[in-house]
TrEMBL record:
Pfam families: PK_Tyr_Ser-Thr. The lineage of its organism: Eukaryota, Viridiplantae, Streptophyta, Embryophyta, Tracheophyta. It comes from Coptis chinensis. It comes from the Eukaryota. Coiled coil: none annotated. GO terms for molecular function: ATP binding; protein tyrosine kinase activity. Residues 1-243 form the Protein kinase domain. InterPro entries: Kinase-like_dom_sf, PRK1-6/SRF4-like, Prot_kinase_dom, Ser-Thr/Tyr_kinase_cat_dom, Tyr_kinase_cat_dom. This is Protein kinase domain-containing protein.
Length: 243
């Protein structure tokens, strides 16, 4: 696995606020002006979800201590020139400590991890965004857990699928994205009313999109114990389109 400094200007966060609510990436390196790119294809969005899950699994299981990222959100997922995802904001010192204590485990995972995790120096200074926080984590004094990371990851995946910000549900009673999507599925709304319009022309991907929606909704279950581990999430994402 390769480690990349968070300050690497060749990587930029993907941004959900581009024109027509389509998922794009916003180039924000070196203090220059933003440069919006065309909407991402379904294949790229699926790859971002899979790569992010792979990086988060590494954080969770790279050593016996079972680390928690604690601040997963779309701005922490950086894309390189090939649109490969990297997770930022975890802390290089923690990874080095973790890797030194679990060399055998790391060597076994090396081939499957590849270059999916980008780590900043030290701990992440930015506070978690409420819209990405698991319900139990919003209560004061509650400790962040790996299941909180799973919830946050699910919100990011819902962003990829809908092109909406996590608090941008269209109805007043369902302002949060997870509630909006869950309500839409419960009421059997047409997929065209839920997904990013930029994906509508990719008819061949409809089944895969539905599979990933269900994975994301499993990740955002209200009860922490009902959420899957990241290992299961990754396995399910990697099976999309292959059965």
């Amino acid at each position: 696995m390769q480690v990349h400094d968070k300050a690497d200007s060749s990587k930029c966060p993907f941004d959900m606020t581009s024109v027509n609510a389509s998922v794009g990436i916003d180039a924000k390196g070196a203090g220059g002006p933003s440069n919006s790119l065309p909407p991402l294809s379904w294949a790229v969005r699926l790859r971002i979800a899979q790569g992010t899950a792979r990086g988060l699994l590494y954080i969770h299981e790279c050593c016996p201590r079972k680390y928690v990222h604690g601040n997963i959100k779309s701005s922490k997922i950086l894309l390189d020139d090939d649109l490969q995802p990297f997770i930022s904001g975890f802390g290089l010192t923690r990874l080095i400590s973790c890797t030194n204590k679990s060399t055998d485990f790391a060597s076994k995972k090396q081939s499957s991890i590849q270059t999916v995790l980008s780590l900043g120096i030290g701990s992440d200074a930015s506070p978690p965004c409420l819209s990405y926080l698991a319900p139990e984590a919003r209560l004061s004094r509650n400790k962040l857990t790996q299941k909180c990371d799973v919830y946050s990851f699910g919100i990011v995946v819902l962003e990829l699928l809908t092109g909406r910000l996590p608090q941008a549900g269209p109805e007043k009673d369902y302002k949060e994205l997870e509630c909006y999507v869950r309500k839409a599925f419960r009421e059997e709304c047409p997929l065209s009313e839920i997904i990013d319009p930029a994906l509508m022309h990719e008819v061949h991907a409809k089944k895969q999109v539905l599979e990933v929606f269900h994975i994301a909704l499993n990740c955002t279950e209200i009860v922490p114990e009902m959420r899957p581990r990241m290992k299961t999430v990754l396995e399910n994402l990697e099976r999309v389109g292959f059965h």
